[in-house]
Design goal:
metal-binding; monooxygenase activity; Cyt_P450_sf; two-stranded antiparallel ribbon; iron ion binding; Cytochrome_P450_fung; about 270 residues; mainly alpha; 9 helices
Length: about 270
């Protein structure tokens, strides 16, 4: 696709186009290597981001009070418009939800394997140089010594109130799980800043215009969806159902307005 776009003069700057251009200028990176690099980057970004978004939607069907609290924050900051990236610093509760989604079920629960470069010890056990280490990200995110009631989905664990003020902000007392779920050291996910902002912005947009509700049966009774996840290197929720209902006519108008603007810019997607 990139090669075709390059020939047609329509290629956007990208990692693939950069390496292809390097090869034209005397580089010798095998094309298969370029393909593998692009494939790894795409796969790592897409599935882990989907894990967070799907996990967020699943939990919103189960916790209406959390959803209402987040929407109240959004309505104060973004009164009659959709949230923008610049609003992030003023939306600490949305940030807390994003943090709790990552802690509740890390997208890569066993992280990425590392190999010891020298002998080490851990809890009295000798680990020789060359040992393969698999970090238990799930265990770290559910450590009762760090997170009270770790099996409870509770974004408020990351919030604090400033004295007698009604102002709330992100707490500094609980460890930010994103320090763990994106890996460690030299092999930490290089796309962390992009992934964090993308997940945050997606959550904010959805909460601003939609109520996320569980499905209902023939009698109109809500059907609680199970907290069931598939196993694997990347762990996503198993298929579940939910309903997206515009919060109001004004919210529906915001969606239509945005679609109209995208269509005018030629960005419309069916």
């Amino acid at each position: 696709m990139v090669k075709k776009a390059t020939r047609e003069g329509t290629a956007n700057p990208s990692m693939v186009s950069y390496y292809l251009e390097e090869n034209k200028n005397g580089g010798d990176i095998p094309e298969k290597v370029i393909m593998d690099i692009a494939s790894d980057a795409y796969g790592a970004a897409v599935e882990t981001t989907l894990s967070s978004i799907y996990g967020f939607l699943l939990q919103m069907t189960k916790h209406p009070q959390i959803k209402l609290k987040a929407q109240a924050e959004l309505d104060c900051v973004c009164i009659d418009r959709l949230p923008a990236f610049d609003d992030r610093k003023n939306l600490p509760y949305i940030e807390a939800i994003a943090m709790e989604v990552g802690r509740w079920h890390p997208g890569v629960p066993q992280g990425i394997a590392h190999r010891l470069e020298k002998d080490d010890k851990f809890e009295g056990m000798f680990l020789p140089k060359g040992s393969l280490i698999i970090p238990n990200i799930w265990g770290m995110c559910h450590d009762e010594n760090i997170y009270e009631s770790p099996n409870v989905f509770n974004p408020d664990r990351f919030m604090e109130q400033a004295g007698d003020s009604s102002t709330v902000s992100l707490s500094q007392s609980n460890q930010d799980p994103r320090q763990m779920i994106f890996g460690f050291g030299r092999r930490q996910c290089p796309g962390r800043p992009f992934a964090e902002s993308q997940v945050f912005f997606t959550m904010a947009l959805i909460l601003k215009v939609f109520n996320i509700l569980p499905p209902v049966d023939a009698q109109g009774k809500e059907i609680v969806q199970p907290d069931a996840y598939r196993s694997g290197i990347v762990s996503l929720p198993k298929p579940f159902a939910c309903r997206f209902v515009p919060r109001s006519n004004a919210a529906a108008d915001l969606i239509k307005q945005t679609e109209s603007e995208r269509a005018r810019r030629g960005e419309h997607r069916s």
